[in-house]
Design goal:
Blueprint: E1 6-10, H1 23-34, E2 40-43, H2 55-68, E3 74-78, H3 84-96, E4 101-105, H4 116-129, E5 134-138, H5 140-143, H6 149-155, E6 161-166, H7 171-180, E7 186-189, H8 195-201, E8 205-207, H9 215-226, H10 230-239, H11 241-250, H12 252-263, H13 279-291
Parallel strand pairs: 1-2, 1-8, 2-3, 3-4, 4-5, 5-6, 6-7, 7-8
Helix pairs in contact: 1-2, 6-7, 8-9, 9-10, 11-12, 11-13, 12-13
């Protein structure tokens, strides 16, 4: 099994003017990411507009990522769905198309029925049926359900559950997870805003929206921490905070895609009903990219 560590970009899904996936632009983005310090790509994450895609589109995107990335780059595919059956079906399809790891978010629609034990049983069932290793995805901002540190610690005992991406932003919870899981369990920061502290505490990397526009800076933060060059890593972490906010909490998917366009990747417009960034947002994003020397950096 490939090591699940380092920094990953949760790649955006580019759409053409007619709303269909633009696989040509997708391949161009992948070729650029492949030359960076990223450990790999997460396809079908929240930033890939996973919930906006059909089952067939999801499978086609996974195949395109595996084809577009070097063999040594790890491909993590988001496969969590509302039902166990659909999750397992998509996970098996992802494995068939070359994904190395499945990133599984918990079901969330029937919140009143989704007790912690029900969610725990769901993850165990997926892990038992998955032909590839599974990472648990905690995204309470979107799912409305927080996966407790105690739950993640219990799940880490399963042989086919190899890590967690925690996008909750609660560093106390992340600390508790790191303290409770085996040393080879991959605890990932789910945002560029706390990559440094997660890594210093013993985390193994991150899946970061901001890595879609600043892949090499994000990879360098992790590399510096790994070499215990904490002062340099800390400076870079502080430097990217405002850009990270622009592509996440401040302007959402539209902001992230606008930032990609400005940095030299192709972002384009989100799939409706999500909206693109407006002129005021774009101006702010441009300013943050200029400060970091990223405006047009990846344009070819």
């Amino acid at each position: 099994m490939k090591k699940v560590e380092g920094v990953f970009a949760p790649i955006a899904t580019p759409f053409g003017a007619d709303g269909t996936i633009d696989f040509g632009r997708y391949a161009e983005n992948l070729a650029k990411f492949d030359k960076t310090g990223l450990a790999g790509i997460v396809v079908l994450g929240s930033n890939g507009e996973f919930t906006m895609l059909s089952h067939e589109e999801k499978l086609d995107l996974i195949a395109a990522v595996r084809k577009g990335m070097s063999a040594d780059k790890v491909v993590i595919a988001g496969t969590g769905c509302e039902s166990l059956k659909e999750t397992v079906d998509l996970t098996k399809g992802a494995a068939d198309r070359g994904a190395d790891v499945a990133l599984v978010i918990n079901p969330c629609y029937y919140k009143r029925d989704l007790t912690e034990s029900t969610i725990e049983n769901f993850f165990i069932a997926v892990a038992e049926k998955s032909p590839i290793p599974v990472m648990v995805y905690n995204m309470p901002g979107n799912s409305g359900i927080n996966l407790s540190s105690a739950l993640v610690t219990r799940l880490s005992a399963h042989g086919n559950i190899v890590g967690v991406k925690d996008s909750g932003g609660n560093i106390v919870q992340i600390s508790e997870i790191i303290a409770g899981v085996p040393s080879d369990f991959s605890v990932f920061a789910g945002s560029g805003s706390y990559l440094f502290v997660t890594t210093v505490l013993g985390g193994k990397g991150g899946t970061l929206a901001v890595a879609n526009v600043a892949p090499d800076i994000c990879a360098e933060i992790y590399a510096l921490c790994s070499r215990k060059e904490y002062d340099k890593a800390r400076k870079l972490q502080l430097d990217i905070l405002q850009l990270n906010a622009c592509v996440t909490s401040r302007y959402g998917i539209g902001g992230m895609k606008a930032a990609m366009d400005l940095a030299g990747f192709f972002g384009g417009a989100p799939r409706l009903p999500l909206q693109p960034a407006n002129n005021v947002m774009v101006k702010d994003i441009r300013t943050q990219l200029e400060k970091l020397g990223l405006l047009g950096k990846y344009r070819t």
